[in-house]
Each structure stands twice: as C-alpha cells, then as structure tokens.
C-alpha cells in the first residue's frame, strides 16, 4: 500500500494539487524524499517495490513519477518501458548507476530527467520543479487561444502582433506579452506579482519599476491608435485591469 504524506504548510508557493509517486526501495531515502516533497506542498505516494510501483503508476494519473532503477520484483527500466506504452507521465529516474550508457538508456526509454545517487535534496526539488514547469507551460499553451478579440482590439499570439480597428499597433515583444495577459484576463484585476511572474518571469520587488515602465509605454501606444487613456487602469492596492470600449 502506498504511504501518503499530506501537510498543509510549505515554504514557497507551488502549483496546487501536484501528485507525485516515489518508487524507491531504500526506505530511509524514500522517507526523506516523501517528507521533503510533502512539506513543499505536494501530495505524495511512496512505494518500495517495482511491481507495485508499476501498478500504482498505471492506476493513478500522477503529475510526476520519481523512479529508482534497482528495485525488487521489477527494475525501473522495465517499469518505464511498460508505462510508456500507455501513459506520458513525466518520469525522473534515480539511480546509483552514474555511467553514461545508463543515463542514455533511461532517456531513450522516455525518462524526462536523470539524477545519480548520491544527490543533493535541493537539486532534486529544483529538477522536479523544472519538469513540472515545462509540463504546465505545455498544457497552458495547448489550452491558450492563438487569437483574442475585444471589440476593436485584436491580438494574434502567433504573429506577436496587436491590431486596433485592423491597424497594427507598434509594440515590443514584452509589451505584447503584457497586453496578452491583460486581454486574456480582462474580467479580472491582475496583481503586480502575477504580471512580474507571467510577463517578466521574475519575482516582484517593490523597488523594481520595470513593470510600471512597460505599462506606461504600452498605454501611450494604445492611446496613439485611438484607445482611451484609461484602457489600462490601475486598481489601487490590487493591480491592473484592461478596459476596451468603442
């Protein structure tokens, strides 16, 4: 039976409800990894046996599987090969085998990353987060429309181009990214912290005025083509919101 760890407190925000399976026969390492991930806010199932690991991986739609290679009853490579016949769940391989051919074998069977033992637990967390970010970005991109139209404002994500009344708006790539986020969420007020992460791809700092600068220049360019000066409004203490009117 899988051992489940659920803790409500963790050190930094992470995507909610990420479910991870850890298949590792070293009981001490298994417990360390599961406790660490649980404390980071993940839902974690922990298994020590190969056959049971495969059964669990096939039965549950996990966001990520951490898979040891040397396991009792079935080795990790066989689990990975069987899993890839029916699922594309991201897999991070753990192994004491650091040889190049072992890494190549794991990656050729469909592993997403490979970490050799002994490893630093902080590095493990960073690799997990990197895999989940990539998967999340792919899912988000797949669900995101390529075009947005709000009255006379039209955005084309493939062209990275904005149009107002069919006329192109001369904006930079960052300004387009900013306008896209505001347009995609035009019914909501977007916080500075969210825009820093989604547009500038860094943490918000109250001393950093970059976002304000980009917003100011974007406003001026929208006004220049005929949009209201209030098209991007500042909601005091909350963030920014896009308004498009005739």
Question: Can you walk me through this structure?
Answer:
With 246 residues, the chain is α/β, with parallel strands linked by helices. It has 2 domains: 3-142, 3-Layer(aba) Sandwich (Rossmann fold); 147-242, Arc Repressor Mutant, subunit A. The protein is built from 8 helices and 12 strands. The chain has helices spanning 27-39, 50-59, 76-84, 100-108, 121-143, 173-184, 192-200, 210-224; strands at 3-5, 19-23, 43-47, 64-68, 91-95, 113-116, 147-150, 153-156, 161-164, 167-169, 232-235, 239-242.
> What distance lies between the first and last C-alpha atoms, to the nearest angstrom?
61 Å
Main pleated sheet: 6 strands, mixed
Q: How large is the radius of gyration? A: 23 Å
Q: Number of helix segments?
A: 8
GO biological process, one term: regulation of DNA-templated transcription
Domain OmpR/PhoB-type: 145-244
Domain Response regulatory: 19-132
GO molecular function: phosphorelay response regulator activity; transcription cis-regulatory region binding
Quick rundown:
Helix content is 41%, strand content 20%. The chain is α/β, with parallel strands linked by helices.
Keywords:
alpha/beta; Rossmann fold; Arc Repressor Mutant, subunit A; 2 domains; 8 helices; 6-stranded mixed β-sheet; disordered N terminus; 4-stranded antiparallel β-sheet; 246 residues; 12 strands
